[in-house]
Amino acid sequence: MIKEVNDINFNEEIANSDNIVVVDFWAPWCGPCKMLSPVIEELANEMGKNVKFAKINVDESPIIASTYKISSIPTVMVFNKDSVKETLVGFRPKAELKKVIEKNL
Amino acid sequence: MNARYDIAIIGTGPAGLEAAINAKIRNKNIIIFGSEDLSSKISKAAKVNNFLGLYNITGIQLKNSFAEHIAAMGIGIVNEKINNVYAMGDYFALMVNEKSYEAKAIILATGIEYTKPLIGEEEFLGKGVGYCATCDAPLYKGKTVVIVGYNKKSVEETNYVSELSEKTYFIPMYKGEYNLNQNVEIVNHKPLKIVGNDVVTKIILDQGEIVTDGVFMLRDSVSPSQLVPGIEIENGHIKVNRDMKTNIEGCYAAGDCTGTPYQYMKSAGEGLVAALSAVSYVDKLHDNK
């Protein structure tokens, strides 16, 4: 399951989460984001037990997008509490994303 | 839904063509992207004496025998430029602007012709540097953007960006007419490097500099790491093993894009190996289903 997160529930869903959180920054007008989203979904199905998955629409969450200096999408970040452990800019194959996430478990 | 090809080959030089004929012989459903000219490098060669079996010929003669060979085998070239290849898991999505193709395996045979990145370009990728202006333009609403344009298409993208950004600069890297919106400022100086701290702050030119929030590099030919996000590069070339396999499952590479020596026979040989590896990968996919 992928949680929709925005400026309002960011702290509750990500900063205060017990698990690490994989966040997909996206927007509806971004082509590569559309390609990445089924890949993230597959990962969420496989790894959802130990890792939380979230997506943030940068159009609707300008505060978070500017706090984390999102200047290109898709961007995937791995959060542990409120600190960013990994940042991956652009589409990435599933195997690579999985490796990066596992490194942070 | 689009038909899913067994193998998609990107590039019509000796590596791509040799891959195509071998995959075809193995009865795979293939698609090959490139140009009718096959390879501009071959046509430019004055004399070729190191291609076994074809002695003392010109590049054009060599090109013509390649063309006859693939035509005789019923291989047609799709004259479209692939912008991105996304590894989706058990297949690849090949994007041509708004259109896309699907293939179970891919062979990269793109040669080595791409322009070197600017200093700082790779360092600031995603931190102010981008390759798709239309993708990221809304993130620069009310900000300053510099676009380094290598082709006509970059003018269209610049106009789109200028409708959202506060200030847009266009640095043309080719000669021609630029049909730009009035509020775009054309800068006729050569870009040298991109600098910043956490994020881009300015672009340094051979004369002066521009303070900016973002820089888009819009080129004709893209480097392998832009073409296939996630592919492993080593010393400026695609990293492959003896089976011509890259770090991405189902993705193979052959020819100049994998490294030196840049020679026809080496490219063709690698194309052959890549095709056979791709064929056995595709067969294995079927067995698992």
Automatic annotation (TrEMBL), chain A:
Which Pfam families does this one have?
Answer: Thioredoxin
Instruction: Give residue ranges for domain Thioredoxin.
Output: 1-105
Which family, according to UniProt? Belongs to the thioredoxin family.
Q: PANTHER family in the record, alphabetically?
A: GEO12009P1
Q: Does the keyword Disulfide bond apply?
A: yes
* Entries under NCBIfam families matching the protein: thioredoxin
> Would the keyword DNA-binding turn up in this protein's UniProt record?
no
What the entry lists under InterPro entries is as follows:
Thioredoxin, Thioredoxin_CS, Thioredoxin_domain
Please give the name of this protein.
Thioredoxin
Which keywords does this chain's UniProt record carry?
A: Disulfide bond, Electron transport, Redox-active center, Transport
Automatic annotation (TrEMBL), chain B:
InterPro entries, sorted: FAD/NAD-binding_dom (IPR023753), Ferredoxin-NADP_redctase_2 (IPR050097)
Print the keywords alphabetically. Flavoprotein, Oxidoreductase
Q: Which Pfam families match?
A: Pyr_redox_2
Start and end residues of each FAD/NAD(P)-binding domain? 5-271
- This protein is called what? NAD(P)/FAD-dependent oxidoreductase
Q: What is the lineage of its organism?
A: Bacteria, Bacillati, Bacillota, Clostridia, Eubacteriales
